[in-house]
Specification:
The complex is a heterodimer. Chain A is α+β, with helices and mostly antiparallel strands. Chain A contains 15 helices and 13 strands. Chain B is of the alpha+beta class. Chain B has two domains: about 230 residues, Cytochrome Bc1 Complex, Chain A, domain 1 (2-Layer Sandwich); about 130 residues, Metalloenzyme, LuxS/M16 peptidase-like (Cytochrome Bc1 Complex, Chain A, domain 1, 2-Layer Sandwich), CATH 3.30.830.10. Chain B is built from 15 helices and 16 strands. The mean pLDDT of chain B is about 95. Classes of the chains: A alpha+beta, B alpha+beta. The interface between A and B is large, with 85 and 89 residues.
C-alpha cells in the first residue's frame, strides 16, 4: 500500500484572499497538534526596529483578557501546554513579525474540551485586543517587556558566534536596514513609549502584508474563518513587499576587527554575487559548506586543523554567502586564504562529482523532513511565498539534480569577497576569585 | 533471532514500542511510524563523561581515565582506514552525527531513503574501532578548539561553575569534553580499553523510529551485532557528597547582564524512582516559580528577573539537582525569594488547582512531544539509559502524582543544606576598529 505522506500544497493551494492577506491550510492526519502562524511583514528603520522586537514580546505576554504574563501562561497551561510565541524574522531589508500558536488537537483532550476554539479566541484576543487603553500599552506589562528588550540588546554579546555574525552584517549592509540587528539599537529602544508602540502596532495591522499558514491534522474551516474575519474587520491599506535588496558591490572588501576577552576568535567572510539561480546556489552551498564532508569541512577542519566549526549560510535577498568559523586569531589570514582556495576549487570545477550528488541527496532529505514537523511546514510555506517561487522544496531538489559542474563553476566566479570581520580574542581581566 | 519480543502500548496515545532483546544482549527499541517521511536511528552506549574510573576483575586498584575520554572516543570512531564514514552516510542521503553526554554516547543518523543500508553502516562502524597514534594526535587540536568555544559560552560556564560547587568530588562537575590538559593524556591504547569495556551489546541500545519495520531491523542486527561477552569490570562508586551549605561562586566573562544558576542538590535516585522524583521536582519548581506562578510575576514586576528565567531538574546516575537560572542584577535576592517561597509553600501547602493545571500541561507536552520520529527515538533511548525503564513510563508516573506529593518533594529535593549559586558577572567588552 502506498501512503500519501505529503502535506505540502500544490503550488496554487495558497489562497490570496485580498486585502493584503494570504491564507494557506495544510493538513496531515499524522499530526496531533495544530499550528497557526501569522506573518506580518514590515519595513524597518532604526526607530521602528526595536519597537517591532518589543511587540513580539508584548503581544504574547498579556492581553486585555489576560493582563499579565502569569494569567496568560496559566490559561495556556490549562489548554494542555498550548503555546503562543512570536519572533522577528529578517527578510532582506524588511522583516516579519511571526506569531506562532500551537495546541493539542481536540481529540486528545482528556475531558472533551474544545481546545481549538479556545485557542483561536485567545490568539486573536492577544493580537486585536491587546493589553492597552487610550491608545497606549499598559504597565506593568509594557515596562517589563521593554526591560526584556533592553536586556536582550545588552546580551547580544553573550553568544560570540551570533555577535560576530551581527558585526559582519553591520559592516556588509552598512547604510541599509539589513544592518540593523534583530532587536535594534539600545538608543532607540530606550526611547520607546507605550503610545508609540501601540501606534506602530495599529499601523502594522493596517498596512502590513499578512501571510497566514495553518498546519492541522484534518480540515478545520473554523480556523480560516475566524482569522480572516478578524483581520478583514480592520480597514487595511496593505503595502507591497518584494524583499530582494542585493548588497551593493565593492571594489575592495571592508575589513573590520573587534576585540573581546575570548578563548576563541571568530572570523566571518561575506561574499557577494550578482545573480545565481536557486537550484545552482543550493548545490554550490552544499558542496562548499553544507554536506557533512564539504570542501570547507574537509580542508579547513580535517586536513589543515584550522577550526572546529566552519559554517556557511546564504541570503537570497541580499545576494550574499557568509562563511563563519571559530579560529585562533593568529590563523586568521591562513583561514581566509584556505577559504578562498576552496572557492577557486569550485571555480575550476575540480571537485568530485559525488559531492554534487550528496548535496542533492541532503537537500532531498531536508525537503522530506519538512513534511514531518508542523513548524517546518509552516515556515517553508511562508518562505516560498516570500521568494515568490512556487517550487516546493521537493521540486527544488528535483531541479538541483539537473545542475551541472559547469554551472557551479560559472556561478562561483560571481563570488567576490565583500566583507571580512574578525572578532579577536584579547586578554581578559583577572577572573573574580571564587567567593564560595 | 532474539529471545524476547514485547509490544508496549502507551495508554494515552495508543503508540506501540516494540522492545526486542537480541541474543547478543543488545536491546532494540522500535516505533513504526509509517505515515512519516523520515526515519531515525540512534545507537547508544551507557558510557559518558562520568564513567572514568573502573576496575576489571583481578585488578587490585581502580583505573582512572583522563577527563573527556568518552567524547574523544566518539570523535575517533568516525575514523576508518578505508573510507570516510560521513561520506558513506552522505552518499546514501543520510545525515549522521554523534554526541557525548554525562551518562551516554550516542551515534545517530536520519534519512528519507536507504534506511537499512545506513543502519548497517551505523552498526558496523560503532563496533569497529580503528585508532592510530597519528590520528589520535590530530584530533587534539580540533577538540581543543571545541573546548575553547565552550569556555566562551556563558551558559556552559555558569552551569559547570555550579556543578563544581555542588559536586566537587564527582566527575559530573567536569566538562564532557574534558580539559585542555586531560585530553593531552589520551592515547590510542586508552581508547581501545574503553571501547572493549563499554561498547559491548549488553551496555548498548539501538532505537529506531519513523518509516521503519522492526522485523527488518532485527534481521540486520542478527547479522551485524557482534556476540561477545562483556569484560567483567566494576565502575567506581563515588561516595555521597557532604553537605555544602550555601555556596556562592562567581567569575567574570564578556556578558551583557549578570547570569546566574541556582542548584538545590539532593540524594540521587535510580530507575523508575528517578523518573518519578524528577517529574515531581520539575512540577514543584514550576508551581513555585513557573511563568504562571505569583512569585514569577512578582519577580518580573520588581525587575528582579527577566523572561530568561526558567527551572529544570538535572538528574542522573549519581546526581540530582533542581535548577533555577536566568539573568538578574541581584541573583542573591532571587535566591532569597526562592527560599522564601519554598518555606511558604511548605507551611501553607501547594495550590492544588495550579498543580493540576501544570500536570495537564505536562500531559499535553508529552503527547505532542512524541509526535516526531526524532523525539520518539530520543525518548526510547533516554528511558534505556535511565536503568532500562519502559519507554512510556512517563505518562503513567505523571498520572499518579498529586498535590499532596509536593510537601515531601520540598523537604527532600529543595534542601537548604546544599545550595549553590553560580554567577557570571559582566566584564567590559573590547574596542572596535575598522579599515577600508
Amino acid at each position: 500500500m502506498t501512503m500519501n505522506k505529503t502535506a505540502y500544497p500544490v503550488p496554487d493551494c495558497p489562497e490570496y484572499t485580498g486585502n493584503g492577506i494570504r491564507y494557506t491550510g495544510l493538513c496531515s492526519p499524522k499530526f496531533r497538534s495544530c499550528l497557526l502562524t501569522l506573518h506580518f511583514y514590515v519595513h524597518r528603520t532604526p526607530e521602528t526596529a526595536p519597537v517591532h522586537a518589543l511587540l513580539t514580546d508584548l503581544l504574547t505576554a498579556s492581553s486585555e483578557a489576560y493582563p499579565d504574563h502569569a494569567a496568560l501562561s496559566l490559561r495556556l497551561e490549562s489548554l494542555y501546554a498550548a503555546d503562543l510565541s512570536a519572533k522577528l524574522t529578517l527578510c532582506g531589508d524588511d522583516a516579519a513579525l511571526v506569531f506562532t500558536a500551537s495546541w493539542l488537537d481536540d481529540r486528545y483532550a482528556l475531558d472533551g474540551e474544545q481546545i481549538t476554539a479556545q485557542m483561536l479566541e485567545l490568539v486573536l484576543g492577544c493580537l486585536l485586543h491587546p493589553n492597552a487603553a487610550d491608545g497606549a500599552f499598559l504597565d506593568p506589562a509594557f515596562r517589563i517587556c521593554k526591560q526584556n528588550l533592553l536586556d536582550d540588546i545588552d546580551c547580544a554579546c553573550n553568544d560570540k558566534r551570533e555577535y560576530a555574525l551581527q558585526q559582519a552584517a553591520e559592516a556588509a549592509y552598512s547604510g541599509t536596514p539589513a544592518a540593523i540587528s534583530v532587536h535594534g539599537s539600545r538608543e532607540y529602544a530606550e526611547r520607546i513609549t507605550p503610545e508609540q508602540a501601540y501606534q506602530v502596532w495599529q499601523e502594522i495591522l493596517r498596512t502590513s502584508f499578512a501571510d497566514i499558514v495553518c498546519v492541522m491534522p484534518e480540515p478545520k474551516p473554523e480556523i480560516r474563518d475566524a482569522v480572516l474575519n478578524a483581520l478583514n474587520s480592520i480597514r487595511r491599506e496593505p503595502e507591497v513587499f518584494s524583499f530582494a535588496a542585493p548588497v551593493q558591490p565593492r571594489t575592495e572588501p571592508v575589513c573590520k576587527t573587534a576585540f573581546m576577552p575570548l578563548e576563541q576568535s571568530k572570523l566571518v567572510l561575506v561574499y557577494r554575487y550578482d545573480d545565481i539561480p536557486r537550484e545552482v546556489l543550493a548545490v554550490l552551498c552544499g558542496v562548499l559548506g553544507g554536506i557533512s564532508e564539504s570542501l570547507l569541512f574537509l580542508n579547513l577542519r580535517e586536513k589543515q586543523g584550522l577550526c572546529y566549526y566552519c559554517a556557511l549560510q546564504s541570503s537570497g535577498f541580499k545576494h550574499t554567502l557568509t562563511i563563519d568559523c571559530g579560529i585562533d586569531a593568529e590563523q586568521a589570514e591562513a583561514v581566509q586564504a584556505a577559504a578562498a582556495e576552496q572557492i577557486r576549487t569550485l571555480q575550476t570545477g575540480s571537485f568530485p562529482a559525488e559531492m554534487m550528488q550528496q548535496a542533492v541527496l541532503q537537500y532531498k532529505y531536508h525537503a522530506a523532513a519538512i513534511q514531518d514537523a508542523p513548524d517546518s511546514l509552516a515556515a517553508s510555506a511562508a518562505a516560498m511565498h516570500r521568494r515568490n517561487d512556487p517550487r516546493t522544496p521537493a521540486m527544488l531538489a528535483e531541479a538541483m539534480r539537473q545542475v551541472t559542474r559547469g554551472q557551479i563553476a560559472e556561478a562561483t566566479k560571481q563570488l567576490k569577497l565583500h566583507t571580512v570581520c574578525l572578532l579577536r580574542a584579547e586578554d581578559g581581566e583577572e577572573a573574580v576569585p571564587d567567593a564560595g | 533471532m532474539p529471545a524476547e519480543i514485547t509490544r508496549l502500548t502507551d495508554p494515552c496515545t495508543g503508540d506501540v514500542c516494540i522492545r526486542m532483546l537480541h541474543d547478543s544482549g543488545l536491546e532494540i527499541r522500535v516505533m513504526e511510524m509509517p505515515e512519516f517521511s523520515t526515519s531515525y536511528a540512534q545507537f547508544g552506549i551507557r558510557f559518558g563523561s562520568v564513567h572514568r574510573a573502573f576496575r576489571c576483575t583481578g585488578d587490585a586498584d581502580f583505573t582512572e581515565m583522563p577527563a573527556g575520554i568518552a567524547h574523544y572516543l566518539e570523535h575517533k570512531l568516525f575514523e576508518n582506514p578505508e573510507s570516510s564514514i560521513s561520506a558513506a552516510f552522505s552518499s546514501l542521503g543520510a545525515r549522521d552525527n554523534a554526541y557525548t553526554d554525562f551518562d551516554r554516547t550516542v551515534y545517530y543518523f536520519q534519512t528519507q531513503q536507504h534506511f537499512y543500508e545506513a543502519l548497517a553502516l551505523l552498526l558496523e562502524f560503532v563496533q569497529q574501532p580503528y585508532f592510530t597514534k597519528e590520528s589520535v594526535e590530530k584530533e587534539r587540536s580540533i577538540i581543543a578548539q571545541e573546548l575553547r568555544e565552550c569556555l566562551d559560552d556563558p551558559a556552559d560556564q555558569v552551569f559547570f561553575q555550579l556543578l563544581g560547587g555542588l559536586y566537587p568530588e564527582h566527575p559530573v562537575h567536569t566538562d564532557v569534553l574534558g580539559t585542555e590538559e586531560s585530553i593531552m593524556q589520551i592515547t590510542p591504547e586508552m581508547l581501545y580499553t574503553c571501547h572493549d569495556l563499554f561498547y559491548h551489546p549488553q551496555n548498548m541500545v539501538l532505537c529506531c523510529a519513523g518509516n521503519v519495520q522492526a522485523e527488518k531491523i532485527l534481521r540486520l542486527a542478527d547479522r551485524l551485532i557482534q556476540k561477545r561477552a562483556p569484560v567483567p569490570a566494576e565502575l567506581f562508586r563515588y561516595p555521597a557528597q557532604p553537605p555544602t551549605g550555601r555556596l556562592i561562586r562567581k567569575k567574570r566573562m564578556p556578558v551583557g547582564k549578570t547570569q546566574f544558576s541556582v542548584g538545590f542538590r539532593s540524594r540521587p535516585e535510580s530507575g523508575i524512582t528517578r523518573l518519578r522524583e524528577s517529574l515531581l521536582a520539575s512540577l514543584t519548581a514550576e508551581l513555585l516559580t513557573g511563568s504562571s506562578s505569583p512569585l514569577y510575576q512578582k519577580m518580573l514586576a520588581d525587575g528582579l528577573i527577566n523572561d530568561t528565567f526558567s527551572t529544570d531538574c538535572f538528574a542522573g546516575s549519581g546526581w540530582f539537582t533542581v535548577l533555577a537560572e536566568g539573568e538578574s542584577d541581584d541573583p542573591e535576592a532571587v535566591l532569597d525569594a526562592l527560599c522564601g517561597e519554598i518555606e511558604r509553600v511548605k507551611h501553607e501547602g501547594a495550590d492544588r488547582a495550579l498543580f493540576d493545571t501544570l500536570k495537564r500541561a505536562a500531559y499535553g507536552d508529552t503527547v505532542i512531544g512524541m509526535n516526531h520520529p526524532e523525539a520518539v527515538c530520543t525518548a526510547m533511548l533516554d528511558s534505556f539509559i535511565w536503568d532500562g525503564i519502559p519507554p512510556f513510563a512517563r505518562t503513567e508516573v505523571l498520572s499518579q502524582l498529586t498535590a499532596d506529593d509536593v510537601r515531601g518533594c520540598l523537604e527532600t529535593r529543595f534542601c537548604t543544606d546544599s545550595i549553590c549559586l553560580s554567577v557570571i558577572e559582566p566584564e567590559s567588552l573590547g574596542k572596535e576598529e575598522s579599515e577600508l
